[in-house]
Amino acid sequence: MTTQHVIHVKGLEKSYKELRVLRGVDFSVVRGSIFALLGSNGAGKTTAVKILSTLLKPDAGSAAVNGFDVATQPADVRESISLTGQFAAVDEILTGRENLMLVARLRRLKNPGEIADDLLRRFSLTEAGARRVATYSGGMRRRLDIAMSLIGDPPVIFLDEPTTGLDPQARIEVWQAVRELAANGTTVLLTTQYLDEAEQLADRIAILHQGRIIVNGTLEELKQLLPPAKVEYIEKQPTLEEIFLSLVSDHGKHRVKDPR
Amino acid sequence: MSTHFFGDTTALLGRSLRHISRSPDTIITTTIMPIAFMLMFVYVFGGAINTGSGSYVNYLLPGILLITIASGISYTAFRLFTDLKGGIFERFQSMPISRSSVLWAHVLTSLVANLISLVVVVLVALLMGFRTPAGVAAWLGVAAILLLFTLALTWVAVIPGLTAKTVDGASAFSYPLIFLPFVSSAFVPTDTMPGPLRLFAENQPVTSIVNAIRALFTQQPVGVDLWIALAWCVAILLAAYAFAMNIYRRKIS
Questions:
Q1: Which residues of chain B make contact with A85, given a CB cutoff of 8 A?
Q2: For A105, which of B11, B91, B96 is closest by C-beta distance?
Q3: Contact call for residues A45 and A213 (beta carbons, < 8 A)
Q4: Residue pair B154/B126 in contact by the 8 Å Cβ criterion
Q5: I need a labelling partner for B101 at 20 to 30 A (CA). Which of A134, A206, A210, B47 fits?
Q6: Do residues A34 and A148 lie in contact, with contact meaning Cβ atoms separated by under 8 Å?
Q7: How far is CA A45 from the centre of its chain?
């Protein structure tokens, strides 16, 4: 294991009774990069993330995060990571600001109020900060969830399906937040079932299928696995997403004409 | 126990106390049933019940206080269950915090919430004519017994909170606890009950706890009842704590 690799997974196996979810998973993640674990539902992505964040113990194999073994040094691993799980782990009864302050207190930071206000600003939640989270939209909840994970600047962040269930605008906001994280040197491991999400964000993509990593490489490397590109002339139609986004964008830069 | 235990528990306690202050309905729903029982038994049945002593509300209040606690602790199971289902439990578990503080914060919150409920029920009892010659020391004694009983039952409530599959399952366990006082000396003297029932009533925890509190309120010597009551509370507390912690450890490992 080189010091460059901040996450190192070798021969990871995990079964739930008869069901073999992970059957020998190996991968490494370079410091400061975005690594996407791509797979369909039930491929074992969440199980892998839970093992790396010390919530589950593997049956076999080893995993190290930031130089600490997840099985023997779980407390050190927890100091190095933040987990944003599949379901927004926010307190509905507290306000957004109180949620952030709670995490700052639990991480024993000074000035939890200042930290909370700063993150509310960064995630465009300042106006909603004093409202109870129960009143937030799905996208706001997800942004708050990710903001809570940034407190204390952990070197490694796990995002388990961060955009599942979000509308296209909220997705783009989350993507922007993830890119900023990596730009500041944080290592991000994200799981996703959306191909375009991996394509948009990840420096490296690993495809998890039936409990094994079947492919691992950069987007360019993955493209080479398929038949060589053919040159075809196709009329470029806007995708429905592009149409939707241009119609609802606040700035009205790409205002389209009413077809009627 | 980690060195962060107290700081982490305080931070998490602040969180769940906010839950109570923002949903005071949990206090109302906790107190509504014991108050209804108290009204019904004092004004409907009370006239026909011969307890051999003065006012029936004086006789009844200790048992009503135990019912209040039995009804209040189901919220601990409910809050714990909600945390587990919502994902915030996993967030806490993946953070560098003392792991038992997650449970202790809920337990301490239960003590505060039940204390408020008990005060509400005592105030209603005072309006209904409850009177006691008890001084500060006797009141403190009553408070200490009730607090210990709440602590013991709250740890019992942690068990379904951690293991329940549905939200109904998480709170349904408290119904038998609420009805346990009916087969005790809480509502009527046990000596009118038929043999086996009387044997059960006289040897179950509620009777000794009720008798001890009643003795403190009426300024009688508490006698052996106090020690039996304390032994029951401590035994339930230790057993429930060990069982709950065992489940918790298996859950988080």
A1: 87, 90-91
A2: B11
A3: no
A4: no
A5: A134
A6: no
A7: 12
Helix extents (H) in chain A: 45-52, 74-80, 96-106, 112-122, 138-150, 168-183, 195-201, 219-225, 240-248
Domains and CATH numbers, chain A: 5-250 (3.40.50.300)
String of DSSP letters for B63-78: HHHHHHHHHHTHHHHH
Q: Is A260 helix (H, G, I), strand (E, B) or coil?
A: coil
Contact A85 B96 (CB under 8 A): no
DSSP 3-state assignment of A167? coil
Identify any residues that bridge with A209 across adjacent strands, giving them in sequence order.
A212
Q: CB within 8 A of A181, min separation 6: which ones?
A: A150, A157, A188
Partner A contacted by B11 (CB < 8 A): yes
Contact yes or no for B130/B197 (Cβ under 8 A): no
**What confidence score (pLDDT) does residue B1 get?**
46
pLDDT tens readout for residues A240-260: 888 888 888 765 454 445 555
Residue B225's DSSP bridge partners are none
**Confidence tier at A60 by pLDDT (50, 70, 90):** very high
Amino acid (1-letter code) at residue A176: Q
* Cα(B79)–Cα(B66) distance, integer angstroms: 21
Q: Which residues of A touch B (CB under 8 A)?
A: 53-55, 57, 75, 78-79, 81-83, 85-94, 98, 102-103, 105-108, 132, 148
Residue given tokens 């939209």 in the structure block: A137
Lowest-pLDDT range, A100-104, A167-171, B156-160? A167-171
Number of H helices, E strands in chain B: 12, 0
Q: What pTM did the predictor assign?
A: 0.85
Query: ipTM score here?
Result: 0.85
Query: Which of A57, A88, A91 minimises the CB distance to B15?
Result: A91
Q: Is A216 helix (H, G, I), strand (E, B) or coil?
A: strand
3-state secondary structure of A214: strand
Sheet holding A60-65, edge to edge: A19-30, A5-16, A60-65, A68-69
